[in-house]
Amino acid sequence: MRKLLTLLTILISNLIADNAQAQLKSYIGISAGLSTPTGNFAKSDYGPIYHENNKAGYAKNGITMGVDGAYYFYKNLAIAGNLTFQDQGGLSKKDVENLAAGYTDGFAVDNSTVTANKRYNSLNALAGPQYSFVFNKVILDVRAMAGVIKSLSTPETRVDLEDDPTHTFYQRSSKSASFAYGAGLGLRYYISKKLGVVLRGNYINSDGIKITNENRNINAGRLVTKQPISLIQTTLGLTLSL
């Protein structure tokens, strides 16, 4: 095992040494693609009574688009960053029915009605170190990132218990921000000295944005006060060397 680790270390060191021969050019680019929720953010289960899944986000696959770039300060080492918008959908009819059934059980009432509006829309602003491996016209970017997720909106719900307006409560749409971190891989192929196409995959995670609830006089049933967010984003775009 020790010999294998030593061999891998030597191979990686040699690969880095072979690639660190010339100063790479900084670049900027645009891209768009698919944003896929993962973990609790993607879950759509209410959970059993008294053990509700308060972290389930009911998020959907959606689009992402944004700008990306890197400044090379020493050969293959750069500070990279991206700014992206993503839409992760809203609550479906099935989701609303799932929530209503859960609240009916949780509050021990005969019936409940859930109405929903708005969607998961957010901005990500992330930056961090990047190392690039060069293989002729193809460049492999490896990066780590940290920054912020700024929510523009989240699904908002109104819950009516047994058609009694005194028992109506709300989960409001959130516009809060939260620390986020992640990692990414990118493949750039240059079709000219300056212009290239790029395929990227990024993983982004946040412990959660703050969620506000109104008129929750009894903390029975599902109660979301913080929504974790985790995403895998796959994009295709254009890049321009500076």
UniProtKB/TrEMBL annotation:
Q: Keywords in UniProt for this one?
A: Signal
Which first-to-last residue range defines the signal peptide?
A: 1-22
- Which InterPro entries does the entry link to? Beta-barrel_OMP (IPR027385), OMP/PagP_B-barrel (IPR011250)
Outer membrane protein beta-barrel domain boundaries: 14-211
Q: Does the keyword Disulfide bond apply?
A: no
SUPFAM superfamilies membership: OMPA-like
Q: Where are the transmembrane segments?
A: none
Q: What is this protein called?
A: Porin family protein
